[in-house]
Amino acid sequence: MAWYNNLFSSDQKEKITSITQVRPGATSGAEPKNSGSWGQWSPIHYHSFDGEKNPGEIGYIRKYNIDYNGLRLRSWQSYLESDITQDVVKKFALWVIGSGLKLQAEPKTGLINELGEDFDRESWTRDLEARFTIFTNSEQSDFKGMDDYNTLTFEAFKSAIIGGDVLCVHRFKDGKLTTQYIDGELVVNPAMNSAEAKAVEKRKNKLKHGVELDKNGTHIAYFIRQDDGGVMRIQARGTRTKHHFAYLVYALKYRLDSVRGLPLIAVVMESLKKIDRYKEATIGSAEERAKVVYSIEHAAFSTGENPLMKNVAASFNANAVVQDDDEDKGEQTAQKVAKSTTRQAFNMPIGATLKALESKNELYFKDFFSTHVNLICATIGIPPEIALSKYDSNFSASRAALKDWEHTMKVTRIFYSKQTYKRFYSLWFTLQALTDKIQARGFTSAWRSKDWLTLEAYKFARFVGANVPHIDPVKEVQAERAKLGALGVNLPLSTAEAATESLSEGDFASNAEQFQRELEGFEVEQEKNEEPGEE
Predict the structure, then answer these.
(1) What is the dihedral of CA 156, 162, 167, 169, to 10 degrees?
(2) How many other C-beta atoms can be found within 10 angstroms of the C-beta atom of residue 361?
């Protein structure tokens, strides 16, 4: 290391040695790799690590300020313009919500001391579920009185994954609990120095993207843009009950402190647009080539004559008769071919060749298109087989795709039902119990004393929807039987209610009642048809 010996004097070397002994790794000097000669010394450079190992490889750091309104508008534009976006969004919503989620009430009776020994849990939950099902399928649950709760929630979920979020508002109308969903585009900040903005400041709260927040970041109220340009303030919770009466329903959140949601396709919108342009360009070029069937190529010794010139001249004057005094046998043959086959044959000039236009772009279209659609579907979280309704893989691959989607669908359904169905059910149950529509012993006293544990024990429930069907149900059952071993050969793996739910064949209790009535009617018919004297 001659450079080191020439760079530092002997005094400096001593100082460097003392520094490295006191502070190993100090940036002002160098330290030996191994104790030994001066040739083993090497300087140490310190650098803050931000994920980039080689300068310039990742690029400069960006901290995004989310333009929620711009993302929302672009996402809705993609939904209208891109068939891929529309197909994926509709399939996502249809699988997760479909015609609505079904209540499965599961009250924690062990935590409710007032129920008593005579409490019939099965009968109680069956009646409760029936009442909730009737209400959510009735127009009485809609604030506008036009749709039912299940239909509203499906549209809200679709709007949330496209626009990023929607505002849900619950109101009491004519003694009934109703629901209204408001597009997230209408949730805006009031004008600066307006009475609403000053009132927020007076309450020592802050405004963020149309949401009023307290010092803890809790949502206090939402501001909705009106047709006249003003805003309407909607309080988030009840003053006394603290129940959620207005809340934002999200598709995707950027960070923990984000108050607004992101569209599900936010990260792939640019790719979707480019794929759409590529598809249109490929189809357009194929269409243009189809219009120009042939091209004429001339060699170096060609006369340059256009063999189609007579046809061009005739097209300008339909009544003109094309004559050729030098018509040869080739032209006569061409006319005979044209008369016999309704096609044309051309006697090409010397050095000219008539070639058909062709392109190999269409041959690679499927591979390019499918690869990028698969990546987009994976990013959104839905298998391309599900999104495109295309099941042409082998059994194992199709089953893996369906099981992967089943997991994603169930987690998404739980996440979304917590934002919508469970909050709505909590309000509905409270109203039903306090008005004695539902017999819930001790609920009123627990509500007055704010015994939240008893209240939650009564309202504990989950919401289920249509399941992913098995590709081969027999193989699935055999696999589960194998897990149980020899002792579990005759054990039931399901119940009649679970089987009905799995097959999406309605409600088991209703089916059983209907079957009983049909069976009784069948027995009556049999008795009528019996001959006299027969036993």
Answers:
(1) -10
(2) 13
DSSP assignment, residue 165?
E
Measured distance CA(172)–CA(66) in Å, rounded: 35
Q: Record the pTM.
A: 0.72
- Residue 95 near residue 386 (C-beta atoms within 8 A): yes
- The Cα–Cα gap between 79 and 283 comes to 21
Structure confidence by residue, pLDDT tens digits, 497-535: 666 666 555 666 667 766 676 666 666 566 666 655 544
φ, ψ of residue 16 to 5 degrees: the values are: -65, -40
Contacts of 480 (CB under 8 A, 6+ apart): 493
**What are the Cα distances from residue 265, in Å, to 75, 379, 489, 493?**
7, 8, 47, 40
C-alpha span between 482 and 488 (Å, rounded):
9
- The whole-angstrom separation of Cα 208 and Cα 12 is 59
Integer Cα distance of 447 and 292 in angstroms: 79
Nearest to 89 by CA among 259, 236, 339, 272: 272
Asked whether the beta carbons of 178 and 141 are under 8 A apart, the reply is: yes
Q: What angle do CA 177, 179, 184 make, to 5 degrees?
A: 155
- Residue 507 CA to residue 287 CA, distance in Å, equals 53
What share of residues in the chain are helix, strand, coil (percent, to 5)? 50, 15, 35
* Alpha helices, DSSP H, located in 137-294: 149-163, 195-202, 269-291
Rounded distance between C-alpha atoms, residue 151 and residue 128, angstroms: 21
b/e burial code for range 511-532 (CB count within 10 A of at least 16 → b): eeeeeeeeeeeeeeeeeeeeee
Long-range pairs of 121-127 with CB within 8 A, sequence gap ≥ 24: 124/439, 126/509
Cβ–Cβ < 8 Å for 93, 161: yes
Summarize pLDDT for 117-164 with one digit per residue, the tens.
677 888 899 999 999 999 999 999 999 999 999 999 999 999 999 999
Residue 251 tokens, joined: 């598709």
For residue 490, is it left (φ>0), alpha (ψ between -120 and 50) or beta?
Answer: alpha
DSSP letters along 59-128, please?
-S-------HHHHHHHHHHHHHH-HHHHHHHHHHHHHHTTT-PEEEE---GGG-GGG-TT--HHHHHHHH
Other Cβ atoms within 10 Å of 226 Cβ, number: 10
- Mean pLDDT within 65-86: 93
Separation of alpha carbons 499 and 205, rounded Å: 52
Please choose, from the candidates 283, 251, 275, 366, the residue with its C-alpha nearest in 3D space to the C-alpha of residue 81. 275
